[in-house]
Every structure is written in C-alpha cells, then in structure tokens.
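Today's session is about reading a structure prediction critically. Students often jump straight to the picture, but the first step is always the sequence itself: look for stretches that repeat, for charged clusters, for runs of hydrophobic residues. Only then move on to the predicted structure, which in these notes is written as discrete structure tokens rather than atom positions. Here is the chain we will use throughout the hour.
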Amino acid sequence: MRLRVEFTTEPFDLDEAPAHALVAREVIQAAELDAVDVGPFGNTAEGGADAVLTAVDALLRQALQAGATRVSLQVNVVGEGER
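Below is the predicted structure for this chain, in token form.
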C-alpha cells in the first residue's frame, strides 16, 4: 500500500522558518520516501505505508520537541493512477 502525507507545523513565521519547521522537513527529506515536496505553507510526501508511518512518527516527535505547538497532517491511501 502507498500513502501520501501532507503536513504543516505551527506557529508560522513568515520572515524565517522556525526550528520545528526545519526539523520536520529534515525528517521527511531523510526518510525513504519518494515524491517529497516541501514548501513554505505545506509539505507532501509519498511512499510505502511502513516508510510513511515511520516518518510521521519521527516527524511528530521531533517537531513537537523542537517547539511546534500544532502539527496538522493528513494521510491518504494512494490508489493506482493517482500519482
């Protein structure tokens, strides 16, 4: 099964990316995922279910530890032809 995760961390800072946002992006970029897209207002990645769920666990733990007060995420099953 393939999954797609979309996430943001808060609080936002439009002048400079906060530490929690940088940590979250580093976790996702270092994970064994494909189709990673990071941006200023949201991040998306796809991969196998185990890889995505492992990355989400690390993302939540490390972003919260780095000062995030809120992490919004959505996980979807990616069907054939939805890439």
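Discussion point for the tutorial: The first helix runs from residue 19 to 30.
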